[in-house]
Design brief:
The protein is an alpha/beta fold. It has helices spanning 3-24, 26-41, 53-66, 85-94, 100-108, 125-136, 167-195, and strands at 46-50, 78-80, 114-118, 140-146, 159-162. A 5-stranded parallel β-sheet has the order 2-1-3-4-5. Helix 3 (53-66) links the parallel strand 1 and strand 2. Helix 2 (26-41) packs across helix 7 (167-195), helix 3 (53-66) runs parallel beside helix 7 and helix 5 runs parallel beside helix 6. The protein is globular, with a radius of gyration of 17 Å. The model has no long low-confidence stretch (mean pLDDT 97).
């Protein structure tokens, strides 16, 4: 294996997807920031969920909002539906894996909350069911996806579709977009605190 060539090819693909994401998603990103900021300002919360690496991203992003991203400030209301092993395993066993997020959304989401499903393919049944449940509860169903957006197209709005079919590159853009969301929300929250 030519590791130098591998290293260069991976970074080249990452840079290409970064450029394509930058060109494709500014409006969708701005919409996501806006709906999330309005929700937080109104006393609502942001709920993240996904599978595998997307589950890790959900937990990571919720922690950035609750604790801090860059600066000390008041906590921002967020949670990940991927962290309670008892709920996940009971839900998977008793209701089916497709329902593990929908059940939690019905228990925890309220009118005006923002549910952000994360799925690289846009075809994860439990993410789709979670977003459908969010809409039933009067929450905003938003998502991060890749490829053609899969079954999230027409369901999630805002929907940020990373223009790539490579799972690793999509995941890299998801955590970048998620951290940008956290940074924007933190900046807005601090500005609002100083204005009071």
């Amino acid at each position: 294996m030519d590791l130098d060539a591998f290293f260069a090819a991976e970074l080249d693909e990452h840079e290409q997807v970064t450029r394509a994401t930058r060109a494709a998603l500014p409006a969708a990103f701005a919409r996501l920031v806006t709906v999330a900021a309005v929700a937080l300002e109104r006393g609502n919360k942001i709920v993240f969920f996904g599978n595998g690496g997307s589950a890790a991203d959900a937990q990571h992003l919720a922690a950035e909002l609750v604790v801090r991203y860059r600066v000390d400030r008041a906590p921002l209301a967020a949670l990940a539906l991927t962290t309670d092993s008892s709920v996940l395993t009971a839900g998977g066993n008793d209701l089916g894996y497709d329902q593990i997020f929908a059940r939690q959304v019905r228990a925890l989401c309220r009118l005006g909350d923002v549910a952000i499903g994360i799925s690289t393919s846009g075809r994860s049944p439990n993410v789709i069911e979670g977003l459908r449940a969010a809409l039933e509860m009067g929450a905003i169903a938003a998502a991060l996806a890749g490829g053609d957006g899969g079954r999230l197209v027409g369901l999630a709005d805002p929907l940020l579709i990373v223009p790539s079919t490579t799972t690793a590159r999509i995941q890299e853009m998801h955590i970048l977009l998620g951290q940008m969301l956290c940074g924007a929300l933190e900046t807005m929250a601090v500005a609002a605190e100083h204005a009071r």
